[in-house]
Amino acid sequence: MSPESQGQNEHYLSVARRGFRTWRGDRPFWAGLFTMLGGVPIMYFPYANMHLGNVTLAMSTTAGAGSLIIGVLLVTLGLTMWFHSIVRVFAGVAAILLALISIPVANIGGFLIGFVFALLGGALSVAWAPGVPPAAEEPAPAEAAPETVPFAKDEPFPEGALHGAGIPEQPQAAPYDTTVEAEGGRHRAG
User: Fold this and answer.
1) What's the whole-model pTM score?
2) Which of 15, 40, 72, 137 has the fewest CB neighbours in a 10 Å radius?
3) Three-state secondary-structure class, residue 50
4) Would you put residue 94 in left (φ > 0), alpha (ψ -120 to 50) or beta?
5) From CA 105, how far away is CA 114, in angstroms rounded?
6) What's the Cα-to-Cα distance from 133 to each of 20, 21, 36, 130, 180, rounded to whole Å?
């Protein structure tokens, strides 16, 4: 084994980190993470109890089931953004709508924490676009052989040589029928 073969001696954490970075770059990772982080407080706060000394403050409301459904849907949409990035625009719009619905339904959107995270995640998902792979170095086009070039490089093209090049022929329209106007706009069959 030579000291130049670094690929075999890399630590498994370095390989896993590089693999995760590649995976993360191929999808709206932060959008999914923020959407899931927005769903957690929305579904948690209606079922939580705060203890202030000897006083227990129950934050449960009549909309507990609605809050749970909105929170679970936001977490599901966040996972969808990660694993099915083709539907990222739908998932982003749905996350934004659920975040807005959580304001009146789920304790002011999880005390605005869940609302802000879900809104940010949805907006990031709608705005995310997959990266374009870098273009490979293409060799310069070779000079065309002289027998394939119809005209020499220095002389101009003859008149009409390029007329209509690249533009498909359009079918000629039927001539305008003036009998329709002469009959007062009525159809011949009627």
Assistant:
1) 0.62
2) 137
3) strand
4) alpha
5) 12
6) 18, 16, 29, 9, 58
- Residues β-bridged to residue 58: 49
Q: How far apart are CA 152 and CA 144, in angstroms?
A: 11
Could you tell me where the DSSP H helices lie in the chain?
12-25, 29-44, 64-83, 88-105, 107-111, 113-127, 179-182
Cα–Cα separations (whole angstroms), residue 79 to 23, 74, 109, 113: 14, 9, 20, 19
Buried b (16+ CB within 10 A) or exposed e, 125-144: bbebeeeeeeeeeeeeeeee
Residue 39: is it exposed, middle or buried by C-beta count within 10 angstroms (0-12/13-18/19+)?
Answer: buried
Distance CA 31, CA 46 (A): 24
Q: Give yes or no for a contact between 121 and 34, defined as CB atoms under 8 angstroms apart.
A: yes
Range of weakest confidence among 27-31, 68-72, 171-175: 171-175
Query: What residue type is assigned to position 183 of the chain?
Result: E
Residue 51 dihedral angles phi and psi, to the nearest 5° = -110, 115
Identify the residue whose tokens are 């929305």. 42
Q: State the burial class of residue 81 (Cβ atoms within 10 Å of its Cβ: 0-12, 13-18, 19+).
A: buried
131: three-class secondary structure by DSSP: coil
